[in-house]
Amino acid sequence: MRLEVDSLSFSLKRFFNKKLPQEKNNSKIPRHVAIIMDGNGRWAAKRGLPRTAGHHAGMVALRRTIRAANKLGIAVLTVYAFSTENWNRPQAEVDFLMRLPSEFLRTDLPELRAKNVRVMMSGSREGLPEYTLAAVDEAIASTAGNTGMVLNFALNYGGRAEILQAVRRIAQAVAEGQLQVEEITEQTLQQHLYTAELPDPDLLIRPSGEVRLSNFLLWQLAYAELWFVDVYWPDFNGEHLQAAVEAYGRRDRRFGGL
Ligand code: V0D
Fold first, then answer.
1. What range defines the domain where residue 132 resides?
2. What number of other Cβ atoms are within 10 A of residue 222's Cβ?
3. Angle at CA of residue 55, ends 49 and 58, nearest 5°
4. Catalytic residue among 86, 137, 146, 235
5. Is residue 83 situated within a structural domain?
6. CA of residue 246 relative to chain centroid, distance
7. Residue 117 near ligand 1, beta carbon < 6 Å
8. Is 108 annotated in the active site?
9. What is the pLDDT of residues 14-33, one digit of tens each?
């Protein structure tokens, strides 16, 4: 019996590219791909369209990318949908963005469910409108039992704020005597992040020509391969994802060792 369980977990790992979280990934296929969906506004401006049209086109690109990632056997796809800095945009644009989760789920949730995709959110619930949270919560609840690809929306997410919150919670546990300072490790911090249950991203993709992290997954991206592609997000497609994944497969990841 013991042997069967072991070989089952071995075949799960092998064929579904699903090692335990926090295990190093030496596979040619990235387990976890993170994407900064950047360039929607510029895509629209180039066409003389309002920025909202760019966000809409960005949602179509997201749908395409989810399908492509699922076909490639990627276990986790994290997409940066809204950063904590995005609140500084004009109120009308923020209002428009906040309605996209419910629109996206109306159009795409049936397909996500049929494909066994599990929806997650990484970010702060604070400040998000009730209707945005309701849509996200519905997506999470109705896919909670799914065992296929994880689709993780970074929404109202900021990397420094995430680390700060983790530090505060750890400090609180120390203050309450539940934890000794000497017991705090990298794992302790990792376990207090929104992504505690996920492996770290193996590959970060940023379209639109910008070459920076913009406060995205600061802790988690420590050893990620970075891939920058010079198309605006609404023009991103399965072939761009494939090219990034192939480049990833050619890179030699040593995690600081030899
Ligand atoms: C706009 C391109 C899906 C990037 C994609 C609230 C900018 C389209 C969602 C979504 C946005 C989020 C959570 C969820 C389901 C869907 C989304 C925002 C922006 C910001 F559970 N697309 N999308 N959320 N855009």
1. 28-158+200-208+229-247
2. 12
3. 110
4. 86
5. yes
6. 19
7. no
8. no
9. 344 555 667 788 889 999 99
